[in-house]
Amino acid sequence: MAVSSKKFQAPKGMRDFYPQDMAVRRYIENIWRTVSINHGFDEVDGPTFEHLDLYTHKSGPGIVSEIFQVFSGKDEAERAAVQRTAQAPFALRPEFTPTLARMVAAQADSLPKPIKWFAIPTMFRAERPQRGRLREHVQWNVDFIGVPSEGMFRAQADVAMLALMVAAFERFGLSARDVRVKLGDREAVRRRLKLEGRDQAALDDDLTLLDERPKLRPDEYRSRTRQLGWKDALVRLYDPETRLVVRLDDMSSLPDRERQDSEDQRKQAGSLLYEIDQAEIAEWCEFDSLIVRGLAYYTGLVFEAHEATGAHRAIAGGGRYDNLIESFGGPSLPACGFGMGDVVLGNILHDKGLLPEDVYMAPLRPHAFVVAADDQAAAQLPKIVADLRKQGFHVRHSYKTTRNVGKLLGEAGKSRACFAIILGKELAENKAVVKNLESGEQGDPIPLMALVEFLRAQSRRV
Amino acid sequence: MAVSSKKFQAPKGMRDFYPQDMAVRRYIENIWRTVSINHGFDEVDGPTFEHLDLYTHKSGPGIVSEIFQVFSGKDEAERAAVQRTAQAPFALRPEFTPTLARMVAAQADSLPKPIKWFAIPTMFRAERPQRGRLREHVQWNVDFIGVPSEGMFRAQADVAMLALMVAAFERFGLSARDVRVKLGDREAVRRRLKLEGRDQAALDDDLTLLDERPKLRPDEYRSRTRQLGWKDALVRLYDPETRLVVRLDDMSSLPDRERQDSEDQRKQAGSLLYEIDQAEIAEWCEFDSLIVRGLAYYTGLVFEAHEATGAHRAIAGGGRYDNLIESFGGPSLPACGFGMGDVVLGNILHDKGLLPEDVYMAPLRPHAFVVAADDQAAAQLPKIVADLRKQGFHVRHSYKTTRNVGKLLGEAGKSRACFAIILGKELAENKAVVKNLESGEQGDPIPLMALVEFLRAQSRRV
After folding, report:
1. Domain check: are B282 and B133 in the same one?
2. A69 closest CA partner among A79, A58, A59
3. What does the mean pLDDT of chain B come to?
4. Eight-class DSSP state of B435
5. Domain hosting residue B406, numbered range
6. In contact, A340 and A310? CB cutoff 8 Å
7. Residue B4 resides in a domain
8. Last residue of a domain, one of A357, A376, A402
9. Surface-to-core class of residue B249, CB atoms within 10 Å of its CB (0-12 exposed, 13-18 middle, 19+ buried)
10. Residues A385 and A328 placed together within one structural domain of the fold
11. Does A17 reach chain B within 8 Å, measured CB to CB?
12. B395 Cα to chain A: minimum distance (Å)
């Protein structure tokens, strides 16, 4: 080979997934996928990069400086345009929602309603990497599109989102003590701000400040409220220490009148509280007046999931966006959805000890590790291994030249195989010795013909 | 919402995966993953984009015009450099091997050997899209690194690649009549070309021509051989009509002497023919003197899988590359590997009728579709659905307001659910009617308490 030797690094903020890392990633993705399917969602995906204007259309021109841009090295016109403008025609997807809106709009007439979709794509952000925030991450996206925006189904769709999110948390071993699902209502906050005398024109800036509040130091926050001209009463209303937070399984902190309203709601099918009770997720949920989400396209309920101690960034966020599909050229279809990334979730699971190796490695355990005790057995090993694999078993074997069975069994143990199949002198009678690597048990030699039946019966129990 | 309505398209040559498309993609990926794991390979992945020079290091500067380039819209220095040079610092991965080599080199000391890895990433090519060739596709990559480059294990590693590929074909329902695994030996062809009087310096060009031969018209091929100065005997030797192709399960076309050598090989553990026989894949394989692969880094056996009629591009290709890891700054580790994309494979499966809906939709069938026959039942439905989902079942229900059970059962049928659970007047006795949607059978109402047991017992048979 003509090239010289050179060592390379992964780009900053991008991950290499070695087998253990990949096992964790697949473990997380599989739980996302399983609960999504069980809850009646269909999986979709789109291109890894899209036309840049798909994102500026939704988020404005400011997004251009927050994303990775893409151009073809083959296309002279594209290269010339990039050179002229420092802007490329494509962008690596920073989020899935614009792709989803584009796909729904393109086939809105033929798609059966409601549209319940999930996706598990990778996303990209041109930001300085930090804890909980990388340049490439995997994100679970769920969207529920085209249920009536009024009546019973509206709340059922909203709660379907929350219930799905909670179902995933439960599968990961998290409890309502570990994670809080915080609900807010952008419209309700807008109404409240108007009641407090704020101008219609100032509301977007007010909401942006509320959304950014958790990331600000107290003095930064106060200085921003002064810039916006907030009165003291308003500052106190949304003070992070004293603001209203109401656990949905304990509404005793509410004033009498509101408590009565809430109790009435709980009895009324189609109300948010009723549906939350029916879905058995009330203990996870709380109203929090600081939850408004940063994006202007939300039109109703918004929500975020947070680790309870507040030591991490938000785990997930979403809400209702009834006008988005229409803005991408589709019909008017009410919708709600959320996204959850793998980085913050993975950090939390790790910190809480919920990612032990035997959990995420379980689907990857070999059924059997085959070892050869002599040269004759070594020559027959490939065919026996091939036959077991054809039967659907995960089978490994040694690539060492030693015939030291003890050493080979050590290697079998390291592979986490359930059984070792030892090929030795019993092969002359078409038999093999099988050792249970968990119990250490080793029975009489088993006829090769019966190996499949034996492993099949055992693997149900594994 | 402030933005106006606008319709968008996916970028040319990129795919939208609607639920049916995604089910097919997952079906293909799952078979790749299952056979890889059963054959003892561990899954890995790397970043979607890498430093551009990772690819120029392996393939030379020409690759720059064949890939999609990436830069951060946030980084002023990057944008300025792109503007100056029309070249970006990163590239969307056109192949996985450089990432793999980088990852192995980085942890070569601590990784247990041999390294048996597979990956199922998406790849990107800045080319004009055409049948069988898109700008983004999913590619199965398998690599076997660090077995001795001599002796028994060398051939075992080569054959492990072929056997894994064949195992996937078998799972997809393809037979040795549908697909041919064609073996070549770059070194053997080089030796032969020298025997025919070719200069050492001309060999790379000769091999490139042989690799491109299947895509050339006969007159183009002849004109290229003239340019290279090939003698008539050499042109005839590699003529696509008359060249040597030997099926490994039928070597009768070989001259006596070579047939004898081959028969000796078949008896000798560690020879390619012996290991191919042991893996029971001889009927799939043939030697083909035109198989040399386009890439200069192959150092021994090379192979391609082709649909038997030749109507499609190659399904897969790979070979031995004993020097690659070292060239990426790692130790000297012999290696072999292959890649298989989802596009050509998907076309072939589709053309041969091997992608019926009931096959790829099977894992996505709901266990139950719950319908409510009256308003009281409709109010109880969410909780019953939530409870069944908590037990791990895939449960769907109607979002229609009709109480016309016939219509709702029609919807249940369309969902492909195994059972319909009908909530009606029997709810007063905490019972529900269960209808088998395949047989049409409908037994006595079942207590709600027994629903889980019933579905669990049935879903084993589904």
Report:
1. yes
2. A79
3. 91
4. E
5. 365-461
6. no
7. no
8. A357
9. middle
10. no
11. yes
12. 6
Say if A3 falls within a structural domain: no
Q: Hey, are the CB atoms on A40 and B395 less than 8 Å from each other? A: yes
Cβ of B127 under 8 Å from any chain A Cβ?
Answer: yes
Confidence of residue B3 (pLDDT cuts 50, 70, 90): low
Position with higher pLDDT, B227 vs A460: B227
Contact at CB, B382 and A279, closer than 8 angstroms: yes
Tell me whether B396 touches chain A (CB under 8 Å).
yes
CB contact under 8 A, B392 and A38: yes
For chain A, say whether B110 makes contact (Cβ under 8 Å).
Answer: no
Q: How confident is the model at residue B184 (pLDDT cuts 50, 70, 90)?
A: very high
Structural domain contains residue A206: yes
Task: For residue B150, give the CATH number of its domain.
Answer: 3.30.930.10
Q: Under 8 Å CB-to-CB from A152, ≥6 apart: which residues? A: A269, A270, B378
The answer to whether residue B234 scores a pLDDT higher than 80 is: yes
**DSSP string over B315-382:** SEEEEE-TTHHHHTTS----EEEEEEEHHHHHHHHHHTT---HHHHTGGG--SEEEEESSHHHHHHHH
Instruction: Tell which wins on pLDDT, A191 or B174.
Output: B174
Residue A130 tokens read as 């930090």
- B461 band by pLDDT with thresholds 50, 70 and 90: low
Residue A303 pLDDT more than 80? yes
Query: Cβ B18–A326 below 8 Å, yes or no?
Result: no
Q: What is the DSSP string of A306-354?
A: EETTS-S--SEEEEE-TTHHHHTTS----EEEEEEEHHHHHHHHHHTT-
* Percent of the residues in chain B that have a pLDDT greater than 70, as a whole number: 98
In terms of CA atoms, which chain A residue is nearest residue B126?
A72
Q: Say whether pLDDT at A241 is over 90.
A: no
Q: Is B423 touching A (CB cutoff 8 A)?
A: no
Contact present, B48 and B92 (Cβ < 8 Å): yes
pLDDT tens per residue, range B325-366:
999 999 999 999 999 999 999 999 999 999 999 999 999 999
Chain A 137-176, residues with CB within 8 Å of chain B CB atoms = 147, 152-153, 156, 159, 163, 167, 170
CB contact under 8 A, A386 and B80: no
Tell me which chain A residues have a C-beta less than 8 angstroms from the C-beta of B323.
1
**pLDDT tens-digit map of A360-390:** 999 999 999 999 999 889 889 999 999 999 9
Q: Which of B49, B87, B19 is nearest to B360 (CA)?
A: B19
How many alpha carbons lie under 13 Å from residue A207 in its C-beta half-sphere?
26
Report pLDDT for B60.
84
Decide which of A34 and A189 is more confident.
A34
Pick the range with the lowest mean pLDDT from A337-341, A391-395, B396-400: B396-400
Q: Which of A71, A299, A414 sits opposite B69 (nearest CB)?
A: A71
Yes or no: say if A57 and A325 are a contact pair by the CB < 8 Å rule. no
Judgement on whether residues B31 and B98 belong to the same structural domain of the protein? yes
Structural domains in chain B (count): 2
Co-location of B55 and B131 in the same domain: yes
Has this prediction a pTM greater than 0.80?
A: yes
Q: Dig out the tokens for B33 from the structure.
A: 């993953």
Helix axes A342-351, A19-38, angle to 10 degrees: 110
Contact assignment for B102 to A8 by CB distance below 8 Å: yes
Q: Is the pLDDT of residue A62 over 70?
A: yes
Q: Please state the rounded mean pLDDT for residues B277-296.
A: 88
- Residue B412: give its domain's CATH number: 3.40.50.800
Instruction: Output the average pLDDT for chain A.
Output: 92
Q: Does B378 touch chain A (CB under 8 A)?
A: yes
Other beta carbons within 10 angstroms of residue A72's beta carbon come to: 26
Asked which of B357, B385, B412 is the last residue of a domain, the reply is B357
**In whole angstroms, what is the distance from residue A312 CA to residue A309 CA?**
8
From the list B25, B66, B91, the residue facing A74 with the nearest CB is B66
- Interface list for A 246-275 with B (CB within 8 A): 269, 275
